[in-house]
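Table S5 (text form). Sequence records supplied for joint modeling of the two-component complex.
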Amino acid sequence: MDTALLNRLKDIAISDSGFIFDPYSGATFNTNETGRFILQLLKEGNGIDAIQSEIRKHFKTSEEDLRSDIYEFINLLMEAQLLPKSFQC
Amino acid sequence: MDQPKTSYEKPVLVKYQNGSSDKFGRLQAITPMTHIDGWPVQDLIEKYGSPLFVFSERTMVHKCRELKELLALRYPKFQLAWSFKTNYLNAICRVFDREGSWAEVVSEFEFEKALRLGIPSSRIILNGPYKTESALERALKGGTRIHIDHFDELSLLEKVADRLGMRPEVGIRVNFSLSSVPNWDRFGFNLENGQASSAVKRLTTGKRLTLSGLHCHIGTFVLDPQAYREATAKMALFAKQLCDEMGLSIKWIDLGGGFASTNTLHSQYLPGNQVTPSFSQYVEAIAEGLENLNGPTSELPLLFLETGRALIDEAGYLLATVQANKRLSDGRRAVVVDTGIHHLITSLWYRHEIVPAQEFNGTFEPTAIFGPLCMNLDVIRANILYPPLKVGDRLVIKTVGAYNVTQWMQFITLRPNVVMISRNGQCDIIRHKETLDHLVALEEVPPWI
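The corresponding structure-token record, covering 538 residues in total, follows.
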């Protein structure tokens, strides 16, 4: 992941309860624990497989493939302009 | 020691909208409905399939008796007539018949259905703007009360009565303007422009019919009870005028239907369960209007009410199953369920209350609930703040008892089972789900194709 994007992501504030503040736009959001967890992993520069693997370690789930949910969440972050449309994971 | 894992939930992201809230803008509580009249929703679906219409006999009987008890307190002579078009499944009609209701029908098909159910012809009211000659003949022979809608029907009825050598008692349908509801002038003869008086003169001078009843139907989903006070007063004063000026004795006044249920119209700001008038308010308003009648009780006209929706809507539930979650282009969540507008025509009129049938956790999100049709119009709720749903979760769509199982259609998918839960907890199918055989049985392929 490029440095500028990592810095942008690092500047996004996330509280323990899932409250998100984007200092660039002033927009605020709410996310659930899974969303908070994924966002944190994205901030650390993790890719899709690593994120999926970490979710399995941290959460109790019988879902066979979590990639649809992760990509859907990334699309939501793009729609919210928390990630650029060009983001690749 | 390892910490127990947290349950996984699909990740969500909900943007806070500043400035859009007001004093009513709080999140509305959604309480899961796991049981209907003692039956677990999950069990009902496992036994009868999904989607599934469920009717509560207990609610029907309760509503019917509540209305009758209130009427009995305010007017000595009244009779409910079950509006067949609201829901004419045999079992539903049978419940209201057993509770003492007459039948109100608006077509020959409904008339035939009522007769086949064993309802005596003399306990049927024949309304509607289109009555066939054969229906009129049958109605006259059986003593059915006929409410004449227009002059052509009056002439046709005279012809049939003449052929049968009868001089039956009939009613005419009357319409008028009211201060708080739109003027429904398509049914009957207008009072203000003199058409109703002309119809009475035409009828009495024809000497083949006797005018004994007046009928009106002021609208549908009438949220202002005072409209009934005004309408009843107009009907009562017209009856007095006919008595005073023409010596006619009006033996019955029929106020039609129109009471609202607790559903919420798309145009309504507050939810229906907060603003829909109670039966008590409607009855009070009607009783005030009836004060324009006077005379001994024995001479007071019989009051008919053809209340349909308000008696059956809350007794009906539609159970559905979540088939998919997806995202729309604006990031909004969409849920696809296995029932749609073809089963639930009333979703065009109402913001139906839809609740999960199981406990839920998680962040509420703006959500669209779509049906299974490959049609853009198949929207059950366009935007509702809703908790996360998983594929296979069950939903209960509430207050669907009126007009859906009469106006539903076979379209893309087939119509589902309908069950009724009795007051003692027994659950039975009252209409079987369709199969492809039912559908194609009426079709023909000509040999030249």
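Note: The helical segments of chain A are 3-11, 33-43, 48-58, 67-79.
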